Structure formats: structure tokens, C-alpha cells
Amino acid sequence: TMSDTKNYILDFSDCAYIGEVYAVIKKELELPSWCGENLDALWDAVTGMMYTPAKIIIKTAAKRAELRQSINDIVEVFREAENEYGEIVVTVE
User: Cα 55 to chain center, whole Å?
Assistant: First the structure.
């Protein structure tokens, strides 16, 4: 039921490096520390390890323009997971 839905906020606005982006994801989604910091590992975590059902709010404003594409790629992983599994709702701000 929706009452079991967990809300997560991934706020990347203070991130200057990709490692910090993944640190936010791991901390907020309560992923194990050994979880890899790449898109494949993220897919595995989002579709197999994190608590569901979940609402994920992603705040994408990054400090550095260079990070924007990486964050967009990460958002895309969440979007694909949302499309393939009905357990995840993604909102991007």
C-alpha cells in the first residue's frame, strides 16, 4: 500500500565531485558501502537493494557544470527503474 511508501530526497546541490553525488545516493537510499560508484551498480542497487515502494525526489542543481551530465545519467537510471518497476516514483526538481 502507499502508506508503506518511503520518501527519499537526493539533494546534489552541494556536490562538486561525482564521488559526493554517489555518497549522497548511498547515504539517503541506505545502500551498503561496498555498492559500486557507477551506473551499472546504481541500477542493481535501485532495482534490487533499496527499500520499495519509494518516492525519490532528486534535486539536480550541481555546483559545477561538469557534473550536470553525470547527474543526468544518474537520473536516467532512476527513470528507467521507474518505468520498469512500478515500485518507484521519481520526481526531479
Answer: 11
CA separation for the pair 16, 7 (Å, rounded): 24
Q: Which three cell numbers stand for residue 23?
A: 555518497
Helix (H) or strand (E) holding 89: strand 88-92
64 or 28: which leads in pLDDT: 28
Q: What is the pLDDT of residue 2?
A: 55
User: Over 70: is that where the pLDDT of 1 sits?
Assistant: no
Average confidence (pLDDT) over 23-39: 94
Question: What is the rounded CA–CA span in Å between residue 93 and residue 45?
Answer: 22
* Residue 71 CB-density burial (10 A; 0-12 exposed, 13-18 middle, 19+ buried): buried
Q: What is the DSSP string of 3-42?
A: GGPEEEEEE-TT--SHHHHHHHHHHHHT--TTS-SSHHHH
